[in-house]
Amino acid sequence: MPFALITFQSIINSLKAIVDFSIIWVLVYYILRIVRNNSRTVQIFKGIVLIIAMRFVAHKLSLTTLKALLDLLIQYGFLVVVIIFVPEIRAMLERLGKTSVFSALHSLSGNEKEKLVDELVDAATVLAERKTGALITLEQGHSLADYIKTGTPINSSVTSELLCSIFVTSTPLHDGAVIIQGDRIACASAYFPPTAQDLPTRYGARHRAAIGLSEVTDSVTIIVSEETGTISIAEGGKLREMDAASLREYLNLLIQNSEKEVSQSLGAHRKQRKFNLSKLNVDPIKIEKVDSSDLNLKSTESVESNAEKRDFSKLMGIFKKKPKDNDAKDKTGDDAKAVIGSETSAPQEDESKTSENVDPVTTVDDTNSSDKLNDEGGEPNESEER
């Protein structure tokens, strides 16, 4: 009998140890998820680990003063950690409180799922081609009732035409997000809390809001960039850019399969993408993204350079002709001086007289002008020439 009681007590103790370990494991798991999805949290977590390591070193080396300070810091460190991690703790509690066992997406029939995926992909493709900004959120296990209250209720079936018309910039509901529950559009123009992560400047308010919602819920948000027209998916605090085919595959896996199968498919899709890129006969280093503003700038610079070349060629032509005129002028002046110096022959006097009477700017060939004067009967006197 005592042996049976001891055995029963040991079983109870073992069960307690298993439950205790499971609870600790769940807490550590959620803490690691919080740390992984936030770069600021990672830095703070590294600081805490560094303080604990310093306390251990101070204890081993018998550094009493440093050990006392670190003990005091660790003693009140719990309150400090709670104050620092208030947003993350609130997000974790929201996830625990809003979790439901079944998702509205998984309760749809096969035809309804296929139609929903087709409408979402068609709408995202059209919006991307038009470069119209869009934010479409699919509710999963966590309830989005609080965010639906911030928008305008619609309660309509999901169609690509309705989604495209909602996000037209001239409509009053385009600013905000569309939330889809199951195969129904619950609301439009809903607002989400932006993320606190440090994102690149190319991501705007839509991307930040989508990532912020994915950090506190398990929802999936489709983002269409207004500037570039790219399609992205925000889930679990991460952002993935996709094309239409990848989006269709992702939504099919998301709606019809579990989260584990979705993550495995994403890894296989990334490997397949790398394999397809390796088959291309194009060097990826030589592929460059060219901005249209750069092209316009280059074209204007080339036009200006061509215009400058034409103007320069005109100037060079003028400068090439001017030496000829100057040579003619110098030649005319030299002939006139030679004729004035010599008084022996009358024909030379006629030529010198002709060169003096004719304007050298308008005359290039002095022999033609002198012949013209001789033909007209103008013969200069020798006394006038002296």
Automatic annotation (TrEMBL):
<comment type="function">
    <text>Catalyzes the condensation of 2 ATP molecules into cyclic di-AMP (c-di-AMP), a second messenger used to regulate differing processes in different bacteria.</text>
</comment>
<keyword id="KW-0067">ATP-binding</keyword>
<comment type="subunit">
    <text>Probably a homodimer.</text>
</comment>
<dbReference type="GO" id="GO:0004016">
    <property type="term" value="F:adenylate cyclase activity"/>
</dbReference>
<keyword id="KW-0548">Nucleotidyltransferase</keyword>
<dbReference type="Pfam" id="PF02457">
    <property type="entry name" value="DAC"/>
</dbReference>
<feature type="compositionally biased region" description="Basic and acidic residues">
    <location>
        <begin position="324"/>
        <end position="337"/>
    </location>
</feature>
<feature type="domain" description="DAC">
    <location>
        <begin position="86"/>
        <end position="246"/>
    </location>
</feature>
<comment type="similarity">
    <text>Belongs to the adenylate cyclase family. DacA/CdaA subfamily.</text>
</comment>
<dbReference type="GO" id="GO:0106408">
    <property type="term" value="F:diadenylate cyclase activity"/>
</dbReference>
<dbReference type="InterPro" id="IPR050338">
    <property type="entry name" value="DisA"/>
</dbReference>
<dbReference type="InterPro" id="IPR036888">
    <property type="entry name" value="DNA_integrity_DisA_N_sf"/>
</dbReference>
<dbReference type="InterPro" id="IPR034701">
    <property type="entry name" value="CdaA"/>
</dbReference>
<feature type="transmembrane region" description="Helical">
    <location>
        <begin position="68"/>
        <end position="86"/>
    </location>
</feature>
<keyword id="KW-0812">Transmembrane</keyword>
<feature type="region of interest" description="Disordered">
    <location>
        <begin position="322"/>
        <end position="386"/>
    </location>
</feature>
<keyword id="KW-0547">Nucleotide-binding</keyword>
<feature type="transmembrane region" description="Helical">
    <location>
        <begin position="6"/>
        <end position="32"/>
    </location>
</feature>
<keyword id="KW-0472">Membrane</keyword>
<keyword id="KW-1003">Cell membrane</keyword>
<dbReference type="InterPro" id="IPR003390">
    <property type="entry name" value="DNA_integrity_scan_DisA_N"/>
</dbReference>
<feature type="compositionally biased region" description="Acidic residues">
    <location>
        <begin position="376"/>
        <end position="386"/>
    </location>
</feature>
<protein>
    <recommendedName>
        <fullName>Diadenylate cyclase</fullName>
        <ecNumber>2.7.7.85</ecNumber>
    </recommendedName>
</protein>
<dbReference type="Pfam" id="PF19293">
    <property type="entry name" value="CdaA_N"/>
</dbReference>
<keyword id="KW-0808">Transferase</keyword>
<keyword id="KW-1133">Transmembrane helix</keyword>
<dbReference type="InterPro" id="IPR045585">
    <property type="entry name" value="CdaA_N"/>
</dbReference>
<dbReference type="GO" id="GO:0005524">
    <property type="term" value="F:ATP binding"/>
</dbReference>
<dbReference type="GO" id="GO:0006171">
    <property type="term" value="P:cAMP biosynthetic process"/>
</dbReference>
